[in-house]
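Quick review question:
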């Protein structure tokens, strides 16, 4: 690490040296684990269904439990890292995540796999805030930190892109457990490198550990995230309303405790900083757009355009690569264009990507690839710059709590993307699907709730009836795509407005 002096001879921030960049390479490994794990499992679900024979509800929980536990624990884990040491928490989480992955890989029952997924969520919650807060404390010069955050965001997006491709390849050569075993060699490499290269950091004046606040953060986040997912899948049921009510009550109690505590677990004054709050909201809305498009695009490519899952993943790959490249380009552009203007423009690009999808009369592989690439440019720039702004706007001692809040916004944005935009898509589809075959099948086993279910029903009619049903289903789905894209454009433009209003002094 070198110290730079300005023309007056005054010392400025330390520039990073080889050791700091080596530390960054180490921090990319846990990011890779968590991001790949977010997307790799979907390819293994058919094999898991055959082998473990879970119920439909258990299968949904096998997918969702990881994200729900992750979102519920991020804030608590970020605060614990500030107090007990971020490197220590990272190492604990790495070993635990590897052990949970082993349990998942060799699960012999749905219950065992559900337990493993829950543990993956618990230990995964220690990893992401630790990596981002350690970056804040390793890289002191804004230029270096911005490049490091671009690398962090690139690895997160790259891991998400790698997950489907890697999952498809593994399942063509090995059992479904292999999608979990890929974490083990990363753990083996990561632990000794982290001990050798990562410095320990913590808040020098930490608040006392508040077990009640931790419990309240869990009882607020878990029901709210579950309620959002349940709303998307089953509508406004009694269970959904109960989850929302429980989460809101716990959230109110948590805020009240944090406001009245002389040494709160989370410093609520962080939200009084317009730049910090604006960056958090922009992050959440950015992830809503990304996950919403992945939900929409995957179905469009496979069920409407007839691609295999692997081919669909490859079509979306250029967009995910554009996300990576755009993050690094943003690091250079910020030297000549204001962060406020760049972030605002990035959300306009996201809106443009959805507009391409909405205005295309006949969807094609090319139109989906182009739309997602345009959107990827916007998302890549937004993720890099908003994370940099968020970390730069808080003291380094509060980096863990701030990173945890940012990561929680990520997870909530991802859940909302599927829940809100997915609900628009499926409700439009259901309300516009009409065909005589439905009179015979009715609503048996939710046969017509999704395009995938309707395609399966159509296979029972290898004649004009089946062809007509498919035509009707695809027309309804196409209308759903247009409505969903319109809603996403509104979200992206709202994010642009929030960025323009709040990042004025970034």
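Suggested answer, residue by residue:
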């Amino acid at each position: 690490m070198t110290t730079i002096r300005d023309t007056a001879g005054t010392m400025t921030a330390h520039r990073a040296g080889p050791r700091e960049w080596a530390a960054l390479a180490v921090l990319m490994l846990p990011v890779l684990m968590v991001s790949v794990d977010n997307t790799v499992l979907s390819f293994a679900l058919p094999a898991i269904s055959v082998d473990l024979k879970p119920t439909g509800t258990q299968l949904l929980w096998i997918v969702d439990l990881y994200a729900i536990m992750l979102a519920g624990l991020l804030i608590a884990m970020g605060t614990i890292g500030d107090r007990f040491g971020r490197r220590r928490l990272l190492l604990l989480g790495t070993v635990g995540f590897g052990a949970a992955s082993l349990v998942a890989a060799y699960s012999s029952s749905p219950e065992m796999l559900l337990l493993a997924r829950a543990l993956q969520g618990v230990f995964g919650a220690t990893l992401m805030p630790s990596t981002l807060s350690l970056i804040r404390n390793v890289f002191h010069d804004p230029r270096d930190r911005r490049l490091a955050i671009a690398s962090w965001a690139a690895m997160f997006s790259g891991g998400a892109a790698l997950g489907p491709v890697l999952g498809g390849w593994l399942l063509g050569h090995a059992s479904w457990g292999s999608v979990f075993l890929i974490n083990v060699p990363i753990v083996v490499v990561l632990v000794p490198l982290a001990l050798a290269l990562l410095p320990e950091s913590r808040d020098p004046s930490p608040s006392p550990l508040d077990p009640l606040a931790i419990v309240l953060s869990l009882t607020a986040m878990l029901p709210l995230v579950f309620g959002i997912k349940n709303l998307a899948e089953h509508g406004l049921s009694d269970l959904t309303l109960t989850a929302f009510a429980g989460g809101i009550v716990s959230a109110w109690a948590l805020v009240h405790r944090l406001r009245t505590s002389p040494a709160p677990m989370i410093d609520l004054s962080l939200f009084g900083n317009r730049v910090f709050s604006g960056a958090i909201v922009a992050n959440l809305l950015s992830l809503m757009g990304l996950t919403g498009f992945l939900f929409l695009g995957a179905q469009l490519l496979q069920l409407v355009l007839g691609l295999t899952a692997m081919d669909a993943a490859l079509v979306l790959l250029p967009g995910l690569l554009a996300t990576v490249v755009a993050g690094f380009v943003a690091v250079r552009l910020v030297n000549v264009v204001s962060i406020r203007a760049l972030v605002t423009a990035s959300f306009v690009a996201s809106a443009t990507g959805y507009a391409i999808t909405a205005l295309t009369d006949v969807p094609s592989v090319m139109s989906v690839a182009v739309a997602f690439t345009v959107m990827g440019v916007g998302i890549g720039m937004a993720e890099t710059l908003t994370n940099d702004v968020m970390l730069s706007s808080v003291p380094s001692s509060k980096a863990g709590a701030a990173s945890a809040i940012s990561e929680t916004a990520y997870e909530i944005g991802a859940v909302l993307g599927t829940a809100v935009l997915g609900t628009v898509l499926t409700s439009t589809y259901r309300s516009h699907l009409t065909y005589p075959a439905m009179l015979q099948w009715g609503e048996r086993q939710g046969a017509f709730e999704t395009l995938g279910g309707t395609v399966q029903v159509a296979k029972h009619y290898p004649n004009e009836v089946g062809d007509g049903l498919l035509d009707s289903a695809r027309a309804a789905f196409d209308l759903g795509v247009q409505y969903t894209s319109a809603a996403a454009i509104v979200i992206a433009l709202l994010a642009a407005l929030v960025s323009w209003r709040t990042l004025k002094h970034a």
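Why it works: Residues 2-11 have pLDDT under 50 and may be disordered. The two ends are 26 Å apart (CA to CA).
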